[in-house]
Amino acid sequence: MVAQQVSSWLTAQALPRTAPAVRCQARERSAAIQRRTRAKQHALSPASVHFQPAKEVGPVLESVAHADSSDSFARVGWHVDCEAAVNEQINVELTVSYVYLAMYSFFHRDNIALPGFSAMFKAGHEEERDHALLLMDQQSKRGGRVQLHTLLPPQPDYSNSEKGEALYASELALSLEKLNFQKLRHLHEVGERHNDAQLCDFVERELLEEQAQAVKDAAELVARLRRVGRGLGVYEVDLELRERYGDGVQN
Ligand SMILES: [Fe+2]
């Protein structure tokens, strides 16, 4: 009997405390539902859409629709300074290629007979020509126009009584590679000046790294030629170059 009275008392005491807790949970659930509903409504409202293609593409579509057939359809953000700088670099690469072509022919003469040097300069001629083609592709990709300039004819003879033809030509080649490296850095600066990330990336990825290595290789050749002197030493270096580049003869 006493136990029943205690149980009834506990139940009576518990009820007033449980009812507000249930109401509190119900309020929290309701608030959570309202928050989720507001979030969905915000996500669907026009003000929350950051990219509105139909609206933003309008001016671009206008320029594309009215572009003259003589204009590039692809050109976007290609500054005229970048276009001119790429054309200048094409001329630099072709000029260096032209000089290496003359060196290839010179060292292939019967009275010079250094086929390793001839082959090395032939490879250099092809490499610089390929760089020019890369730049031409870059120009076309960005909607620019390739403008080829006049190439000055290189000297036909690389004889030098003091240094010998191998060292003389190699020092000239090193100078050209160093100059080319400076020109590429200038091209990169033009890209930076106009915030053209694609041009900067192209110069870094396709040209600058390889050019730095070309300068190093040319410098090492000059160092070796200075060490071995003229005569038999040059012959030994030529043998090594022949192993690396072949005999340079055009089949
Ligand atoms: Fe090059």
From TrEMBL:
Its EC number is 1.16.3.1. One of its GO terms (biological process) is iron ion transport. It is an enzyme of class 1 (oxidoreductase). GO terms for molecular function: ferric iron binding; ferrous iron binding; ferroxidase activity. Residues 76-229 form the Ferritin-like diiron domain. PROSITE patterns: FERRITIN_LIKE (PS50905). GO terms for cellular component: cytoplasm. It catalyses: 4 Fe(2+) + O2 + 4 H(+) = 4 Fe(3+) + 2 H2O. Keywords: Iron, Iron storage, Metal-binding, Oxidoreductase. Fe cation binds at residues 93, 128, 131, 177, 211. Belongs to the ferritin family. Stores iron in a soluble, non-toxic, readily available form. Important for iron homeostasis. Has ferroxidase activity. Iron is taken up in the ferrous form and deposited as ferric hydroxides after oxidation. Oligomer of 24 subunits. There are two types of subunits: L (light) chain and H (heavy) chain. The major chain can be light or heavy, depending on the species and tissue type. The functional molecule forms a roughly spherical shell with a diameter of 12 nm and contains a central cavity into which the insoluble mineral iron core is deposited. This is Ferritin. It comes from Elliptochloris bilobata.
